[in-house]
Amino acid sequence: MKNYYITTPIYYVNDKPHIGHAYTTILADTLSRFRQLINQKTFFLTGLDEHGLKVQQAAEKNGANPQDHCDTMAPAFLELWKRLNIQYSDFIRTTEERHVKIVQNILNEVYNNGDIYKDKYEGWYSIAEERFITKKELDSGLFRDVKKIEEENYFFKMSKYQDQLIKKIEDDKEFIQPSTRKNEVLGFLKQDLSDLCISRPKTRLEWGIEIPFDKDYVTYVWFDALINYISSPKYSEDKNNFEENWPADVHLIGKDILTTHSVYWPTMLMSLDLPLPKTIFAHGWWLTDEEKMSKSLGNIISPLMLIDEFGVDSVRYYLMSEMVLGLDATFSMDSFIKRYNSDLANDLGNLVSRVSTLIDKNFDGIIPQCNDDKNDLSNQLSNIDIEEKLNTFKMDGLIQSIMDFVRSINVYMEKNQPWKLVKEDKDLAGIVLYNAAESLRIATLMLSPVMPQKSQEILDTLGSNDSSLEWGGLKSGEKIGSINPIFPRIVK
Ligand code: MSP
């Protein structure tokens, strides 16, 4: 059976990770955990992009050689992923031998099939963007660090695949999502596609993978980096493992790297005669004060600071529920605290303590008797269609529908008032509390991909270790766990 294969971009090691990097990685982790919740096997890949001019320059600035620089930076990412509870299947670094070898094999393969040629090139090069720019782009004045360069280089025949690519994008609705991004790429493909310069002479850039058929050149960083998606599952080395994973079900990316993923990468795969990823999904940006977070603007939010202050799961919850996938979202402390207090402290946290305290006080902490699987609450569970929401990448909508269910448990409690009912009809009060606790167990399991740690605490409070989403997992007669505040209100 093929794994559901999900990837994040591999991040440049020129700087420490910020909330934007954390976002894509948490999103991939949450999607992967949701897939597992509905019993799919997943393969989740993330990693680091360690070659190219940006990294070489960052190393120079720190007075380190590039490999040492990468080795110093990598732990910051690993540490953050650990703190954020990221359960990746593989973490790849492009300086690893396993990756370098496959990139070189692929270069040979594409060269031998006639899709790479050498040519003289004269043009304008933007160091900030790490690519040659057109005359039109030059005239726009939007590019920094531009130099005129004349040199011989190797080119990949990207133009050869233009028509095939356009057809694929037009015919396959799932391929580039959301549809605004699909249209953006189709717009870009209206002009003639040029071939892609995939080498850099060592005289200009040393930090890269050597071109196997010409030792005076290194590989262009994007040609190298994109290959990580197939080098990790061992393309050309382990057929079974490769086919168990490839094609990727989704490449999650930010909208800043749409062209490289939806034009360069598919044409490279076409040249290799490999299947294309099923979906390339570009999400929007996290903004602060309406601007993209970036090092140069100095408006970066540190994920570690947030985790230290508010706990990892509330950060995961905020990022996953606040951004509508595909659109930009604005990060602010105000909206963070508002969402935490209303959804987590109020709707969910209060419910946990209310239900468990009532069971503790009135039933000696023993889950009351109930064998009624058709009730107001169980009937509403069918409104939550996890798979449909996952297939359409509606993460905020999925969380919303689970939280709506949590709110309906609160409504059910208000309507039935078990704290009063217990004095008149204890059995009936027991049924109400069972239904509320069981609904809470199922809702908590459904939230566990977003908040793995807090969900476990809630399940411990309910004394449940049943992982089924079916009604009836909570066993009457079992003892609940200790009751602690799960989401204390933030007072600011
Ligand atoms: N190394 C390339 C990717 C190669 S993939 C084969 C790269 N790296 S990066 O470090 O610049 O990371 C870019 C990615 O980080 C974005 O595509 C996005 O996933 C994430 N984000 C960086 N800043 C972001 C925001 N402000 N908001 C949301 N995501 C952002 O590009």
Could you outline the blueprint of secondary structure elements for this entry?
Elements: E1 4-12, H1 19-37, E2 42-49, H2 53-61, H3 66-83, E3 90-93, H4 97-112, E4 116-126, E5 131-133, H5 135-140, E6 146-156, H6 162-171, E7 176-177, H7 179-188, E8 196-197, E9 199-201, E10 210-211, E11 214-219, H8 221-226, H9 228-231, H10 239-245, E12 250-254, H11 258-271, E13 279-283, E14 286-288, E15 291-292, H12 303-310, H13 312-322, E16 329-330, H14 333-363, H15 376-380, H16 386-391, H17 395-416, H18 418-424, H19 426-447, H20 452-461
Parallel strand pairs: 1-2, 1-12, 2-3, 7-13, 12-13, 14-16
Antiparallel strand pairs: 4-5, 4-6, 6-8, 9-11, 10-11, 14-15
Residues 9-12, 20-21, 23-24, 49, 225-226, 228, 253-254, 256-257, 285-286, 292-293 line the site of 5'-O-[(L-methionyl)-sulphamoyl]adenosine.
- What is the arithmetic mean of pLDDT? 94
What is the name of the CATH architecture of the domain at 332-492?
Orthogonal Bundle
| Computed Rg | 26 Å
CA(first)-CA(last) distance: 50 Å
CATH superfamily of the domain at 332-492: Isoleucyl-tRNA Synthetase, Domain 1
Major sheet = 6 strands, parallel
Q: How many beta-strand runs? A: 16
By CATH, the topology of the domain at 332-492 is: Isoleucyl-tRNA Synthetase, Domain 1
Instruction: List each distinct ligand once.
Output: 5'-O-[(L-methionyl)-sulphamoyl]adenosine
In terms of DSSP E residues, the strand content is 15-25%
Contiguous low-pLDDT stretches (5 residues minimum) are: none
Major sheet: arrangement of strands: 3-2-1-12-13-7
Shape, per Cα inertia axes: elongated
